[in-house]
Design brief:
Required for formate dehydrogenase (FDH) activity. Acts as a sulfur carrier protein that transfers sulfur from IscS to the molybdenum cofactor prior to its insertion into FDH. It comes from Halobacillus campisalis. Keywords: Cytoplasm, Molybdenum cofactor biosynthesis. This is Sulfur carrier protein FdhD. InterPro entries: Cytidine_deaminase-like, FdhD. A 6-stranded mixed sheet has the order 9-8-10-11-12-13, with helices on both faces. It has a 5-stranded mixed sheet with strand order 5-6-3-4-7, covered by helices on one side. It folds into 2 domains: 29-111, Roll (Ubiquitin-like (UB roll)), CATH 3.10.20.10; 130-256, Cytidine Deaminase, domain 2, CATH 3.40.140. Helix 1 crosses helix 5. It has helices at residues 50-60, 112-118, 130-142, 145-150, 173-186, 204-212, 226-234; strands spanning 5-14, 17-26, 29-35, 38-45, 70-76, 81-86, 98-100, 154-160, 163-170, 195-198, 217-220, 238-244, 247-250. Residues 104-113 and 262-268 have low confidence and may be disordered. The longest helix is centred in the last third of the chain and has 14 residues, at 173-186. Strand 3 (29-35) and strand 4 (38-45) form a beta hairpin. It is an alpha/beta fold and 268 residues long. The chain is flat and about 55 Å long.
C-alpha cells in the first residue's frame, strides 16, 4: 500500500542554528491509465483513493458518464497501472500518450476548446447564508491534516448547508476534484443542493471542471482569474474567492446568497 507522505532527512537552518532532523513530505506517485488495452494517460497524484481518481478523471475527459459505463477496473498499485475496460469503444482524437503533471496550466495537456464543449450551464439554484459559507470554509481548513503536515497538497470537498460531506486531498488540484467527482459517480450521489469547497486558485480550468461536475457553487480561499469569472457568469456558477475568517468576495451569481440589506460583507 502506497503512503501519502514520507519522512525525508534534512538540515534545518533557523536563526543561525543548524539542526539535523527530518521533514514529512507529500508523496508523488505516477499512475498510468490503460483504457481498453491502450495507454491513455499517465498522471502524477497522491496515492490514495485511486479508483475514485480514475473514475473522476475519465468522466472529466468525456470517456464515461456513469459508473455503469465501466465494464471492469483493476488497479495495480505496485506497478502504478490502472486497467479500465469500457462498454463502448473509446474514440480517441489523438494517439499520443499524455503525461499529466501535478502542477496547473497546460502541463495537464488539456485543450480548452474540448473542455468548453463539455461544460454545461448549471440549473441548481439552491440558496445558502453567507455565514454558513464562512463556517464551512473554517471546518474545511480544520480538516486539512495532510496539508498541515506537508504544506504540499490541495484539498477539495463537497458540502451542503448542513456541513462537509466528502473531502479529498492530492498534490494536484485537478486530481482532488476528480477524486470528489469519481466518488460521487461511483456511489451515485445526488448533485442537488451541493457546493464545492476548494483550497486552490479558481482558474478557467477549475471552473470548467466544476461545471462538468454539474455543481453550481464554488467556494475557495484563493483568488479567481478573469476568464474563470466570465465562465462562471456564463455557466450560472456562483464563484466565491478569498473566503477567510469573516470575509469573502462574491464574484458571480450572488442570488444564491441569502444576503440581507443589513448584512455587511467585505467584497473588496
Amino acid at each position: 500500500m502506497k503512503r501519502e507522505t514520507r519522512h525525508i532527512p534534512m538540515i534545518k537552518y533557523e536563526d543561525g542554528k543548524i539542526t539535523h532532523t527530518d521533514d514529512e513530505i507529500a508523496e508523488e506517485y505516477p499512475l498510468t491509465i490503460m483504457v481498453n488495452d491502450e495507454e491513455f494517460a499517465t498522471m502524477v497524484c497522491t496515492p490514495d483513493h485511486l479508483e475514485e481518481l480514475v473514475i473522476g478523471f475519465l468522466a472529466s475527459e468525456g470517456i464515461i458518464r456513469y459508473v455503469d459505463d465501466i465494464l471492469s477496473m483493476h488497479i495495480d498499485k505496485g506497478r502504478g497501472y490502472a486497467y479500465i475496460t469500457t462498454h463502448k469503444q473509446v474514440n480517441s482524437t489523438s494517439s499520443n500518450k499524455r503525461w499529466i503533471g501535478s502542477c496547473c496550466g497546460m502541463s495537464r495537456a488539456f485543450y480548452f476548446q474540448t473542455d468548453a464543449k463539455q461544460a454545461k450551464t448549471v440549473m441548481d439554484d439552491f440558496k445558502v447564508k453567507p455565514e454558513d459559507c464562512l463556517n464551512l470554509m473554517k471546518a474545511f481548513q480544520e480538516r486539512a491534516s495532510i496539508f498541515k503536515k506537508t504544506g504540499g497538497v490541495h484539498q477539495a470537498a463537497i458540502a451542503s448547508r448542513e456541513g462537509i460531506e466528502l473531502i479529498f486531498h492530492d498534490i494536484g488540484r485537478h486530481n482532488a476534484l476528480d477524486k470528489l467527482n469519481g466518488f460521487m459517480i461511483k456511489n451515485k450521489i445526488s448533485r442537488k443542493e451541493k457546493m464545492v469547497i476548494f483550497s486552490g486558485r479558481i482558474s478557467s480550468e477549475i471552473l470548467i471542471k466544476v461545471s462538468k461536475m454539474r455543481l453550481g457553487f464554488l467556494l475557495s480561499k484563493s483568488a479567481p482569474t478573469d476568464l474563470a469569472i466570465e465562465l462562471a457568469d456564463d455557466l450560472n456558477i456562483t464563484a466565491i474567492g478569498f473566503a477567510r475568517g469573516k470575509r469573502m468576495n462574491i464574484y458571480t451569481h450572488s442570488n444564491r446568497l441569502l444576503i440581507e440589506e443589513s448584512t455587511e460583507l467585505d467584497l473588496n
